[in-house]
Q: What sequence folds into this?
């Protein structure tokens, strides 16, 4: 049987939710913390997001170019899919008691508040591990919970700056540095946190013991900052190299005959031979790998590749790369990557029907499993939308819940875009909002 | 004891077990750093990892900046293989031996071209005959599943091409530089696409392992390096689905928060971010730019898909920041914070007073000298060839367990 046919055949039966039955509580905002909860929620965990009443997570207002969809921020809706939303005023003791109760019954707790703030409101690790020893407690910060920099301010770009990786991106002839876009400094540590949580869950399976996980943005970036080692080894900074990857030769982004851009990077002698044959560049075959990586040689080879590419259309370059076997790829933009059929076939992009927001396209967990099926079941919800449902699950009676709401300890959204429900929404016709049914009943 | 000391004690790794004690991983990869990073992270968390290379070694050994070697291998290879056991076996002659090693593993990481292991009769189908509960993690540019995987199976991995396919280079750079050269898409200076795919692959393996240990079975996992970075970031797809036109280079500008980027000061560079309007107001006061506040009051005023509209603001900000020395600017933020904290009335509404995030862009000599990383064991100094060399430590700080480095 053809390999690809065989692989396709084993992907027919996918339905497992590996983290089903795990309860996660998160007190998070912006991107870093919420993305950790999103990953766990896509894998089947029950994730409860605690927000302050009114405005909620401040990132609800963080809509791309200020464009909202049905009074909500589409970015926030995706970043917080499959979660339950409860809004509690942590300034009041009764509010803090509610959060304490939630965390007490959770398997995993995630916070990305300022270092030390969780301790101050009574839900720090030492407080919680006493009442829930199997709890996996995750603190996310810029520099970690202890050490001389732990109180330093941080945000994606700041972490990139202090870790030193900010100084690697740019043109050598322009006195500017560019950030890694789309919050790389938030997403990488959030994935590092998910990986740490999975390892801690496997450890807990054997020992029934929880633990404290301290993840920092800067350290996650430093882990893969090979240039630092290069610097201490040679005394030289690599600095900005434009489109040259100093570990690949030739390497760059070149313009094709049809005005498109293509990236080519050669990592080995084998690939160099393939490109040499395809493009008729003899030097590629003659110069051995390590010699090829000398700065002047990279530039010389790049000029030759540039010329070759400028005489070919993008399609031809990719076809040739595929038949000869060297790395090449088109430089795609937002629209092209979204319309890419390959991703829709893989299910990385798909349409779902959301109970509140209707038919929308969503981005899935970017891994295909032959048994597990991670999926987006519902989108983000307004501030405090699941108050009644969640409190009921934790044993509060209907009267207690209404009393908490009347006192303002448990609250809902302010009438501000990003925090509130869609315009046509009717609370009377929404059993999930009333706490009578679960979101899961509708998916 | 202070909070700092208590935490330092809590995280002391001495005499603790590894979280992945007893987990066996086999990595077979060829010139593929995403697969190597996935295996490396599992190793760091305590798994026992064996990397099988063909005679002559994995060419990844020499993929290193400007050909610089450390202990006879490239820097990235050195760091990503430091805790693995590397063995050399001939894929054809030693096939049975390889099968024997693989059949004892919990996780097999396949970083070859799709179908290569299958051709050598070491594919998932063959392994299942001897080990039904194995988790096979395939890491490749276009994946192993579907029509496109088959069509592009022969294009090897590289970080630059993966960045390109994920749309990253179209976003990087200054939109106001209009000459042909600087309009070209620009790569990220670190292996962004590889790193993200490697971490995603490691997560996927542990998710499958957790389920297997909870009474499930083994399975096949497919990670495609050409989609992970953009899919993790979400934003490119939201733009693709909600807007008719792609974002271009956004340099110092942003699509959600402004300012959000790196600025040149009189004597260096700083990163500036103002997550809220209050933070932006504080920044204007610090920079002495308060008179422009009415024009740019709300976040929505400061972000736009029309870059000409915000060019004026961008130029004013750059100009204002360039008048200060880095230290002076940071001191102004601190002094302002202290001032407001001294007035009791302002304490409860500190959040509304706002404070911009401003930090220096650390030059590498400052990064390697910062004590913080060594206290937290995030950087290590090793001695090699008579030199002291800094290598990264583990980003995983887990209180009950330790990491292997």
A:
């Amino acid at each position: 049987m053809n390999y690809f046919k065989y692989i396709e055949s084993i992907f027919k039966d996918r339905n497992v939710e590996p983290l089903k039955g795990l309860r996660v509580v998160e007190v998070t905002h912006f991107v870093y913390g919420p993305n950790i909860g999103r990953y766990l929620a896509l894998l089947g965990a029950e994730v409860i997001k605690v927000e302050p009443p009114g405005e909620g997570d401040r990132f609800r207002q963080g809509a791309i170019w200020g464009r909202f969809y049905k009074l909500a921020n589409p970015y926030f809706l995706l970043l917080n899919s499959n979660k339950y939303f409860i809004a509690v005023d942590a300034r009041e003791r009764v509010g803090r008691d509610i959060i304490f109760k939630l965390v007490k019954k959770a398997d995993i707790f995630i916070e990305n508040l300022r270092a030390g703030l969780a301790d101050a409101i009574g839900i720090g690790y030492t407080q919680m591990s006493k009442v829930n020893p199997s709890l996996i407690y995750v603190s996310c910060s810029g520099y970690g919970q202890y050490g001389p920099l732990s109180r330093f301010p941080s945000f994606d770009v700041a972490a990139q700056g202090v870790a030193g990786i900010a100084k690697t991106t740019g043109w050598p002839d322009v006195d500017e540095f560019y950030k890694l876009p789309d919050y790389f400094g938030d997403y990488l540590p959030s994935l590092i946190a998910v990986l740490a949580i999975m390892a801690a869950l496997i450890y807990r399976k054997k020992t029934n013991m929880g633990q404290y996980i301290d993840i920092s943005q800067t350290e996650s970036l430093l882990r893969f900052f090979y240039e630092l080692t290069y610097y201490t080894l040679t005394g030289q900074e690599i600095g900005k190299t434009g489109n040259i990857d100093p570990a690949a030769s030739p390497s760059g982004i070149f313009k094709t005959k049809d005005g498109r851009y293509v990236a080519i990077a050669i990592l080995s002698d084998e690939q160099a031979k393939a490109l040499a044959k395809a493009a008729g560049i003899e030097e590629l075959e003659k110069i051995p790998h390590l010699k090829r990586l000398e700065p002047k040689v990279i530039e010389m080879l790049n000029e030759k590749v540039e010329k070759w590419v400028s005489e070919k259309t993008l399609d031809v370059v990719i076809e040739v790369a595929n038949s000869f076997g060297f790395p090449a790829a088109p430089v795609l933009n937002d629209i092209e990557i979204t319309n890419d059929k390959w991703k829709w076939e893989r299910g990385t992009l798909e349409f779902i029907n959301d109970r509140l927001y209707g038919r929308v396209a969503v981005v899935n967990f970017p891994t295909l499993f032959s048994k597990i099926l991670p999926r987006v079941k519902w989108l983000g919800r307004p501030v405090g939308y699941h108050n009644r449902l969640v409190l009921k699950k934790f044993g509060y009676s209907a009267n207690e819940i209404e009393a908490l709401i009347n006192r303002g300890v448990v609250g809902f959204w302010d009438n501000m875009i990003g925090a509130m429900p869609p315009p046509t929404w009717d609370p009377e016709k929404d059993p999930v909002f009333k706490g009578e049914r679960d979101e899961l009943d509708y998916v | 004891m202070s909070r700092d000391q208590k935490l330092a004690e809590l995280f002391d790794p001495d005499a603790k077990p590894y979280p992945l004690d007893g987990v066996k991983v086999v990595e077979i990869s060829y010139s593929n750093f995403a697969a190597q990073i996935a295996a490396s992270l599992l190793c760091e968390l305590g798994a026992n990892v064996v990397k099988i290379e063909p005679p002559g070694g994995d060419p990844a050994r020499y993929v290193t900046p400007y050909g610089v070697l450390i202990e006879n291998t490239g820097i990235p290879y050195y760091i990503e293989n430091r805790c693995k056991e590397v063995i050399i076996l001939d894929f054809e002659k030693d096939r049975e031996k390889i099968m024997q090693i693989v059949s004892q593993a919990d996780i097999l990481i396949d970083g070859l071209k799709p179908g290569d292991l299958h051709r050598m009769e070491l594919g998932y189908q063959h392994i299942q005959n001897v080990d039904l509960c194995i988790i096979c993690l395939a890491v490749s540019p276009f994946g192993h599943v579907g029509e496109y995987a088959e069509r592009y199976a022969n294009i090897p991995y590289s970080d630059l091409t993966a960045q390109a396919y994920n749309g990253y280079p179209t976003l990087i750079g200054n939109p106001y530089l209009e000459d042909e050269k600087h309009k070209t898409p620009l790569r990220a200076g670190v292996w962004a696409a590889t790193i993200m795919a490697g971490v995603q692959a490691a997560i996927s393996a542990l998710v499958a392992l957790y389920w297997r240990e909870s009474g499930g079975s083994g399975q096949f996992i497919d990670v495609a390096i050409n989609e992970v970075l953009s899919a993790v970031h979400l934003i490119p797809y939201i733009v693709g689905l909600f807007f008719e036109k792609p974002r271009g280079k956004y340099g110092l500008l942003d699509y959600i928060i402004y300012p959000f980027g790196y600025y040149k000061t009189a004597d260096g560079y700083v990163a500036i971010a103002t997550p809220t309007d209050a933070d932006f107001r504080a920044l204007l006061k610090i920079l002495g730019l308060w008179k422009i506040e009415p024009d740019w009051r709300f976040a929505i005023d400061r972000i736009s898909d029309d870059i000409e509209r915000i060019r004026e603001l961008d130029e004013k900000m750059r100009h204002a920041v360039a008048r200060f020395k880095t230290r002076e600017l940071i001191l102004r933020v601190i002094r302002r914070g202290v001032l407001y904290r001294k007035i009791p009335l302002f304490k409860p509404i500190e959040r509304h007073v706002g404070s911009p995030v401003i930090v220096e862009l650390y030059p590498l000599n400052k990064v390697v000298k910062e004590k913080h990383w060594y206290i937290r064991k995030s950087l290590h100094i090793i001695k090699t060839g008579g030199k002291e060399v800094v290598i990264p430590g583990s980003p995983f700080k887990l209180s009950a367990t330790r990491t292997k480095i």
